[in-house]
Amino acid sequence: MTEKPSIQLLHPGAVGASLHVPRLALPELPPLSLYIHIPWCVRKCPYCDFNSHQAGPQLPEAEYVDALLADLDQELTAVQGRAISSIFFGGGTPSLFSADALGRLLRGVEQRIPFAADIEITLEANPGTFEQDKFKAYRQTGINRLSIGVQSFQPAKLQKLGRIHNGDEAIRAADMARAAGFDNFNMDLMHGLPEQSLDDALGDLQQAIDLGPTHLSWYQLTVEPNTVFWNQPPELPEDDILWDIQEAGQALLAQHGFAQYEVSAYAQPDRAARHNLNYWRFGDFIGIGAGAHGKLSFADGRILRTWKTRLPKDYLNPAKPYKAGEKLLPVDELPFEFLMNALRLTHGVEAELFSRRTGLPLEQLAQARREAEQKGLLQVEPDRLAATPRGQLFLNDLLQYFLT
Predict the structure, then answer these.
(1) What is the per-residue pLDDT across 282-296, written as a single tens digit (0 to 9) for each?
(2) How much of the chain exceeds pLDDT 70, in percent?
(3) Which of 26, 81, 230, 296 is the most exposed, fewest CB within 10 Å of its CB?
(4) Alpha-carbon distance values, 221 to 7, 78, 242, 365 (Å)
């Protein structure tokens, strides 16, 4: 999966005592998105902790599309009367699937749930899987946004990261995306790579900018548990270099018209990723596919998180359920759940969105807000909930104030 957030957040309930707050009805249901997980990739990267699995010689495209639609069928009762505002194909490498398979899937989805007139449909793609005709065919299915997983343009860095493409292929991928009719595409780029200098990092960033994407996901490499890098840690740049890269990179992006709107997301005007914005604004999303997660709100105030069977072989086994588990969010965890998303946004959210999404009175946050403001972590703005620049850097510290 690309467009990856770069901060590890606390888990609700980690600090403090539980408050038994009554559940209240929601004044309205939030926008609804659909996340579709396609778990196969050509090769597992050493830094990757997503639910991805190396593909065999033959992908079970038809069987997996059938399973995705059957999975979606089981979600329909909970979302009757609602339309989908965005779809995101993540992975793995969704661009390993043919346009015929993805087109059949999208037609099946639209037969079950109406699409908003201006729906955003994003496909993650890796440069090593680009073919011009294939991407024209993707565009014809209704997919209207690409997210291209570049990570770096430099051969030595790509080799360290275990990527299957080279720098020239990454450059051609952007050109082919545009030629295929995609006037809206993201490039996914990492910094803080093994042995990376400031000049290396800025060179990668300038190369990406020169290719004319409408959106850049630019985030620091983090070493996660259950990855090759965790067990065999690479030599990463020192903190001073990382800080210099962050400051200089943000200045370079701003100079070229990319506004930062989230911790690791930068966009040209009106090109923020609508699907991701729905996550950060505590919107709803159905998750289908192996290991996919979902979040659904109900008019009576219930908010349900779900997750699907993780291993592709189990997900495709008709004797096993698609859903692996679900959790009804306790009312006293809702402030944290809402804010760990909303405070990632550079300008936060309008304060009244808290009540619209959770059903809880804004006054419930009053004491924690005052304390966070006094520490310089939260903006002193009555009508907005927004972290200060310092609060963005120390988001875990800020969120501590909202744990119950």
Answers:
(1) 999 999 999 999 999
(2) 94
(3) 81
(4) 10, 37, 10, 33
HEC sequence for 219-277: EECCCCCCCHHHHCCCCCCCHHHHHHHHHHHHHHHHHCCCEEEECCEEECCCCCCHHHH
Give 80's DSSP letter.
T
Report residue 79 CA to chain centroid gap: 22
Return the amino acid letter for 388: T
**401 φ/ψ sector (left φ>0, alpha ψ -120 to 50, else beta):** alpha
Please check whether residue 237 is in contact with residue 284, taking contact to mean a CB–CB distance below 8 angstroms. no
Query: pLDDT value at position 21?
Result: 62
Q: How far is residue 307's CA from residue 292's CA, in Å, rounded to a whole number?
A: 6
Assess whether pLDDT exceeds 70 at residue 7. no
Residue type, position 377, single letter: L
Q: Are 168 and 211 in contact (CB under 8 A)?
A: no
Indicate the burial class of 77 (C-beta count within 10 angstroms; 0-12, 13-18, 19 or more): exposed
Q: How confident is the model at residue 352 (pLDDT cuts 50, 70, 90)?
A: very high
In total, the chain counts a number of residues equal to 404
70-87 pLDDT, tens digit each: 999 999 999 999 999 999
Residues 6+ apart with CB under 8 A from 1: 37, 50, 52, 90, 91, 92, 124
C-alpha Rg value of the chain to the nearest Å: 21
pLDDT in tens, 134-172: 999 999 999 999 999 999 999 888 888 878 777 888 889
Bridge-based pairing of strands 303-308 and 185-191 is unpaired
| Tokens 């661009």 -> residue | 95
Give the pairing of strands 84-91 and 32-38: parallel
Take residue 235 and report the two structure tokens written for it.
Answer: 């030599």
Helices and strands in the chain, H and E counts: 15, 16
Q: H or E element: which one contains 38?
A: strand 32-38
Tokens at 17, concatenated: 């005592």
Q: Are 328 and 400 within 8 A, CB to CB?
A: no
